[in-house]
Amino acid sequence: MSDLVSHLEARLGPIRGGWRDDIDPESGLQVARFADDLPFAGVTTLVTLGLSNSHLEGGHQELLMHLPVSMGNMGPALLDFARKLKASGRVLARGEYVRLGEGFLGTGEMSGLLAYGPVYLPDGFGTCEVGDHPVVIAWLIPITPAEERFVDTHGWRALEEAFEAEDPDLTDPARPSVSAAHARS
């Protein structure tokens, strides 16, 4: 795992804290919290560690979230999500979302998490070679019920285009849905 930690710290700075899986200590799952304001001002980045130690259907994966600094304590929620993903036995594919229920982050109407490439970070960040296998780092973007319906109807690439056109703050769980999700769903 030291290769993965080095990869993360080279781009996000040193780990500033974190959480271990107290519910299932044998899982080896952890969440690392990095310095505030990286990769840009106003956010904290959380990344799972240990999920990639298990080969899941589709490969090896870790999960990343950028959240407002005020929400940097969401490590236990990300740890719970990672535990459930590990139990499912498969990685999240790019563009796949998981419904979690409205308000799951305790703010706004976000109801799910969309797996995406970590576009706010430098090219090459999204994959790290660990031992003899690549680890894919999936950015989890909170999405609204309207955006979920939009993906169901038009596909995740249409949502990607709406994100690019409207440029919402994808790190803000209190943001409104992109307007395309309301206009075309």
Radius of gyration: 16 Å
Question: What is the subunit arrangement here?
Answer: single chain
**Fraction of helical residues:** 25-40%
* Major sheet details: 8 strands, mixed
Flag low-confidence runs: none
Measured by DSSP, the beta-strand proportion falls in 25-35%
Task: Classify the secondary structure makeup into a structural class.
Answer: alpha+beta
| Terminus-to-terminus distance | 43 Å
Q: Which terms summarize this structure?
A:
185 residues, 8 strands, 28% helix, 27% strand
Structure write-up:
- Helix content is 28%, strand content 27%.
- The protein has helices at 2-12, 75-88, 145-154, 156-166, 179-183, and strands spanning 15-20, 30-34, 43-49, 60-68, 97-99, 112-116, 127-130, 133-143.
- Strands 1, 2, 3, 4, 5, 6, 7 and 8 form an eight-stranded mixed sheet that branches.
- The longest helix is centred in the middle third of the chain and has 14 residues, at 75-88.
